[in-house]
Design brief:
The chain is mainly α. Helices cover 66% and strands 0% of the residues. Pfam families: TetR_C_8.
């Protein structure tokens, strides 16, 4: 494939991805048709089907790219086994979210499916759980679920509110709440 064709393919895919993000801001994925996508992206249906099976396939590929990027950010960080979550792990992820706020917001919204949220919740595999050794396996699952779900809720709210807080202060909040719960705020 020539460089010109390669560039065209990349541009077409980018246009379709941007169209999906735009449409997801106003309607659920199940209400978005290939025709809607093609009209919004100004791309022919045959071109769409060259790259994707349907709107769900396009969504799935976008989500896979985001997960891959987040995993890449996480793998670049050193693992600190004394703290399950630290700023060095969270800040790059939050910065990625901030840089791609429109995309991440719609992928985590009720107009999308829960694939990205579930994938992000699987990132606990990167986190050391040695600080939970006092709990049995079932209780560890509850504690991890609580921490990850709460962190996801904070991330969604931060994105929705326009990311006014710095990534550093948000990372510190998540860390304090994850490690100490609301006890941290009792004075």
């Amino acid at each position: 494939m020539s460089k010109t064709n390669d560039r065209r393919v990349k541009m077409t895919k980018l246009l379709l991805q941007e169209a999906l993000v735009e449409l997801l801001q106003v309607k659920h994925i199940s209400k978005i048709s290939v025709t809607n996508l093609c009209e919004t992206a100004d791309v022919h249906r045959s071109t769409f089907y060259t790259h994707y099976a349907d709107q769900y396939d396009l969504l799935k590929q976008i989500q896979a790219d985001v997960v891959l990027n987040i995993r890449h950010y996480m793998e670049q960080q050193t693992v600190d086994t004394t703290h399950p979550v630290n700023e060095q792990k969270l800040i790059p992820i939050l910065e990625y979210g901030k840089k791609n706020a429109a995309l991440i917001s719609v992928l985590l919204s009720e107009n999308s499916d829960d694939t990205l949220e579930n994938e992000i919740m699987q990132f606990v595999n990167f986190i050391s759980l040695t600080h939970l050794d006092q709990f049995d396996e079932q209780m560890k699952e509850y504690v991890v679920l609580f921490g990850v779900s709460g962190s996801m809720a904070i991330l969604k709210k931060w994105l929705k509110n326009g990311m006014k807080e710095s990534t550093e202060s948000l990372a510190q909040l998540i860390i304090q709440l994850t490690e100490n719960g609301t006890y941290y705020y009792d004075d």
